[in-house]
Amino acid sequence: MAVNYFRTAANLGDADAQQDLAFCLANGKGCKKDKREAAKWYRAAVAQGASDVGLAWIYKDKYR
To answer: In the chain, N or C: fewer CB atoms in 10 Å?
Structure first.
């Protein structure tokens, strides 16, 4: 249920929800693991000023 709420808020542009959704997708918490989609949401959050410390992997070509 949380993933659905995170996705709704993320689509509305909430950076915190984008990070939370990305975490769930990257780790398979409450949904199927999808690192490509996780990277997309992490990049969206970073574009709004969220920290990308420890997230260098989201910029690799295989996650674009």
So the answer is: N
